[in-house]
Amino acid sequence: MQAWHVHELGEPGQVMHLAETERPVPGEGQVLLRVRAATINFPDALMCRGQYQVRPPLPFTPGVEICGETEDGRRVIANPALPYGGFAEYAVADAAALLPAPEALDDAEAAALHIGYQTGWFGLHRRAGLEAGETLLVHAAAGGVGSAAVQLGKAAGATVIGVVGGAAKAAVARELGCDVVIDRREQDVVAAVKEATGGRGADVIYDPVGGQAYAQSAKTVAFEGRIVVVGFASGSIPSPALNHALVKNYSILGLHWGLYNTRNPKLVQHCHEQLTALAARGAVRPLVSERVPLAGAADAVQRVADGLTTGRIAVLPAPENGAAA
């Protein structure tokens, strides 16, 4: 089979190499999956750089999110068990963590209804308690994580403000359903949020960016608002002024979705059921902006690393030996 291997750390476009290799052998409690689609997440780029909290041994195959097929023909979504990641024709995953792929979505969309949407659901509902009628501000609203939060916010009955960088991403955010779109390259984000909310600010702020985005969040969060910190795509980890949170009466909430897989996996299953129901009635549909063949994975991961993409890019391995897709 073919698989992308990383033998040394660095930029994805330079350190990912496509190779012919043997199929991985599942360990105890694992299953072999034929990869139907793998979606690219920012952690894939960070792992190539050696900057992610999970550091698989070299060499490894990136790809943390797939729609796959079991040997008995079931269509599932999974997080592959590294070092045998999803940018390959076959991967392995923990059998107990497999989730049924929603029938309403194709393979690429099903793969994308996992990490970003689970993170969004836990962040907005479990952590922030978003309520209908509240205002939700989403940074990087056209990205893979942000676009999921936008759709989940709209499904929950919130007014959604999307912050993006550039006209093309602004157009995507509008198509996703944002009620207000702010282009941080052309507008003063703080002033624009205050204008859109009559000076009150946003009740919930969803921040996968960090850095300057977090500074803007602290200036635009409403009384008793909640800032949900889900990542640092900017590469800058802010140091919040806790006295500011005290005097403005807002909460700073951290979300590490992966912990739920070990601490409370039943909640992950419950979340998947909620997301499947939302997909079935058309309330959410993952934004898959590109579908590339397996050979195009390294270039696509590099573009995600460079912040040049919207939604999710799906990698579609060709079926082996003419197997049906």
TrEMBL record:
Q: Which PROSITE patterns match?
A: QOR_ZETA_CRYSTAL
Q: Which SUPFAM superfamilies match?
A: GroES-like, NAD(P)-binding Rossmann-fold domains
Query: The Enoyl reductase (ER) domain covers which part of the protein?
Result: 13-315
Family annotation (InterPro entries): ADH-like_C, ADH-like_N, ER, GroES-like_sf, NAD(P)-bd_dom_sf, Quin_OxRdtase/zeta-crystal_CS, Zn-ADH-like_protein
In Gene Ontology terms, what is one molecular function of this protein?
zinc ion binding
**Coiled-coil intervals:** none
Give the protein name, as stated in the record: Alcohol dehydrogenase
Task: Write down the species.
Answer: Streptomyces toyocaensis
